[in-house]
Amino acid sequence: MKSTIQIVFFVLYFSFTMNSIHVLSGSSKSKSFSYILSCGASGSDGTDADGRKWSPDIKFLASSGNSETATAQFQDPSLPSTVPYMNVRIFRSTSSYKFSVSPKTRLWLRLHFYPSNYNNLDPSMAYFSVIANGFTLLKNFSASITAKALTLAYIAREFSLTPVESGDLNVTITPSTEQSGSYAFINGIEVIPMPDIFKKPAVLVEYSDQFVDVQSSSLQTMFRINIGGQSIAPNNDSGLTRTWYDDSPYLFGAAIGVTSEVGKNVRIQYSKDVTEDIAPLNVYSTARTMGPDPKVNKNYNLTWVFQVDANFTYVVRLHFCEYQVTKINQRVFDVFVNNQTAESGADVIGWAGSQGIPVYKDYAAYVTDQSGDDEIWVALHPTVSMKPEYYDAILNGLEVFKVNDTDANLAGPNPVPSEMLVNAEAAEKEFSPSASRVGPLLGGVAGGLTGCVLVVAVFVFVNKKNNVGKDCKMGNWLPLYGNSHTSTSKSTISGKSNTDSHLSSLAAGLCRHFSLWEIKHGTKNFDESQVIGLGGFGKVYRGTIDGGTNVAIKRSNPSSEQGVYEFQTEIEMLSKLRHRHLVSLIGFCEEDGEMILVYYYMANGTLREHLYKSNKHPLSWKQRLEICIGAARGLHYLHTGARYTIIHRDVKTTNILLDENWVAKVSDFGLSKTGPNLNQGHVSTMVKGSFGYLDPEYFRRQQLTEKSDVYSFGVVLFEVLCARPALNANLPKEQASLADWAGHCQRKGTLHEIIDPHLRGKINPECLKKFADTAEKCVSNHGIDRPSMGDVLWNLEFSLQLEKNPGMVVAAEKKANKA
Ligand SMILES: *[C@@H]1O[C@H](CO)[C@@H](O)[C@H](O)[C@H]1NC(C)=O
Ligand SMILES: *[C@@H]1O[C@H](CO)[C@@H](O)[C@H](O)[C@H]1NC(C)=O
Ligand SMILES: *[C@@H]1O[C@H](CO)[C@@H](O)[C@H](O)[C@H]1NC(C)=O
Ligand SMILES: *[C@@H]1O[C@H](CO)[C@@H](O)[C@H](O)[C@H]1NC(C)=O
Ligand SMILES: *[C@@H]1O[C@H](CO)[C@@H](O)[C@H](O)[C@H]1NC(C)=O
Ligand SMILES: *[C@@H]1O[C@H](CO)[C@@H](O)[C@H](O)[C@H]1NC(C)=O
Ligand SMILES: *[C@@H]1O[C@H](CO)[C@@H](O)[C@H](O)[C@H]1NC(C)=O
């Protein structure tokens, strides 16, 4: 069984930071105003976490008689701020908002929904439609189902409305009449004038003589990606408050090319056709290309895949800017959209005239549901027939917009929450009486570790059925913007460094480059007898280099899908980090399609093999404590010691290694992400990690914080104490998950019954209490209730003191209370 899950959330997060009234120059000469409304709010303006002002909506209601206002009874911890989500306006019958806007100006309309329990109304009863200036934006929309399927607490949708002659924008909200007792609600509305970025018709791929008239259509923003670069925060987007996301979740296959950034010698300059309204400089200053090897490039397509709704036309906008080559016919490639040739012989220099000039191209494609998957594929491949100097391709940015159909409709069906989530939720209801206390709160109730246990079962089943794990991607259908933003996500992050992540450039740095010959020589040509481990990445061999130094050699399995990316992450992370409690990378080898990492050999293997399921001599309690303290130090360093917070994401007992002196070393950085270096920040990302150790909050909301590592580390602590796996499906349901079961026993005061028999009676009770309290806090359901890694470390050191010197309890406790 694969130990890592790869549930990919095809969700785009969204955040806005524009300040209330903004005058945008451009197409309209008259002043155009933005409306930023917190629906149902009364009195004065409210301010969100970004300092944006949200005004009450009452003035803009065309008919307010049939609406009521309310405040949510539960504040989901993932809400970025109370404004505009905690207040709501509820409608029992058709109602309209009316805004006075500049005529002939395209508008962004952003709608915010937080499905929650308002005035004791059941959120799952709300079904409604939204129509704006004759365009149906939402129909039979259930925010509750959508949020559940997306495992998000709240939803935001962005539409771009075609300009109208009159100076009015009408937004009409109608509760569905099909379900009795149905009602409508909305938490926030933004109306923002936008520059006309859809002037040109888009060519329909496959029918080069047909165009889609984008200008007279309304659109829904589906995806907005900064290819090969980091996320771009809304306040860094030329005043247009768009958010651009990292492309790594959308890359398809194992060959994902290389990323790069514009060099200092090239200046990117806008032109008459492409201004910063089209995309900010940051988009054009990073790119993904195919890589240096023409033979490899000839044999693969650089591919991104996006999930969308069927039966709509989509405009795919590709942003290009060449900053590496300078001449025509140096880099020439084909562009495929949904397996059709959209462009043959694309030559960015040819289009732009020279280096450093951005260009963009729009392609339209109709997505049917016959093709089965409701996906948009964008693929690049060198045009070999043109005999370019380099067999390569480049892409800098990408946007996908849904175009209204002939009925002026943009609404798709509600997503279907995955079987996994439905089961997990049922499990939670069944096993966790405490769930009912929380009430029918929404937006991903799937949590709870008992939930996760069931998820594992489903996952294993799915994975067997379909090895590539396509079904395992949650949100296959997810075409929409999720919304989950924090005010601190501005400096957001992708797992990559800003610098050119091309591997050969790393070789020049801290990291040594090995030849394949050296590696083969040192491992007896990868002899099976040398294998010391097996991971998601591939096999780990024991070997020697330089005539005797013992090393561990991790060889990527070529069929490992995430391989290349994780390989790069690990090299980048480890070549920058040096710490006594982190494994040290000696170097790597990239040759002949092999990806190999070379580490110092850890004579005592993994922590797990000294805990259970082996015939090794059991570790003493003091040894175990010292190992936990070492690992905690390593993680604490990752979280706070480096320039950026680094979140390990896969903390478990097999990733804690022990050297010949029993010094603990945290290993396996393949999944690591750098996070914002602010404490309250989080990284939105794909859920990865190992079951049994997975932070339930991360699982629900795919928001990664260093507290996710703290959770996993709490599981490690219980594992060390109880000497049993984090997840044991053979045990009765309530015992299967160690975090759940140990937490339960700890609260019941029966923890002593489940600790490792080798330890019984051998731990000082004060020490055990401190240790167990710490572990229990680490596995708290909510990240905010968990201690920081620094606190964990302090508490573990304290329990070690208690073990060594029980007499000190009183004095130390006093000190602790003071601190
Ligand atoms: C908005 O609604 C008003 C009536 O409520 C109507 O007169 C006006 O034409 C509508 N405007 C648009 C653009 O549909
Ligand atoms: C798409 O259109 C076809 C044919 O009209 C219809 O059978 C199908 O249900 C539609 N699919 C969706 C997702 O609306
Ligand atoms: C494109 O082709 C691949 C296989 O070559 C297939 O898996 C995929 O579904 C196709 N995509 C579309 C949108 O037709
Ligand atoms: C690249 O994609 C196109 C369109 O789907 C396909 O025809 C071609 O075979 C692909 N090439 C490779 C090397 O996968
Ligand atoms: C979108 O709706 C408008 C107004 O009804 C219509 O003129 C336009 O043709 C529609 N777009 C498409 C692609 O059908
Ligand atoms: C409305 O949405 C619900 C939930 O997705 C679905 O079961 C129902 O069939 C939909 N009704 C219509 C008329 O589309
Ligand atoms: C905006 O982008 C620039 C250039 O990448 C970066 O230095 C700056 O920190 C960014 N600002 C914010 C608020 O993200």
From TrEMBL:
InterPro entries: ANXUR1/2-like, Kinase-like_dom_sf, Malectin-like_Carb-bd_dom, Prot_kinase_dom, Protein_kinase_ATP_BS, Ser-Thr/Tyr_kinase_cat_dom, Ser/Thr_kinase_AS. One of its GO terms (cellular component) is plasma membrane. Keywords: ATP-binding, Cell membrane, Fertilization, Glycoprotein, Kinase, Membrane, Nucleotide-binding, Serine/threonine-protein kinase, Signal, Transferase, Transmembrane, Transmembrane helix. The chain crosses the membrane at residues 441-462. It catalyses: L-seryl-[protein] + ATP = O-phospho-L-seryl-[protein] + ADP + H(+); L-threonyl-[protein] + ATP = O-phospho-L-threonyl-[protein] + ADP + H(+). It is found in: Cell membrane. It comes from the Eukaryota. Its EC number is 2.7.11.1. ATP binds at residue 554. It is an enzyme of class 2 (transferase). It is a single-pass type I membrane protein. Residues 526-798 form the Protein kinase domain. CDD domains: STKc_IRAK. One of its GO terms (molecular function) is transmembrane receptor protein tyrosine kinase activity. Residues 1-20 form the signal peptide. Pfam families: Malectin_like, PK_Tyr_Ser-Thr. This is non-specific serine/threonine protein kinase. The lineage of its organism: Eukaryota, Viridiplantae, Streptophyta, Embryophyta, Tracheophyta. The gene is LOC111307522.
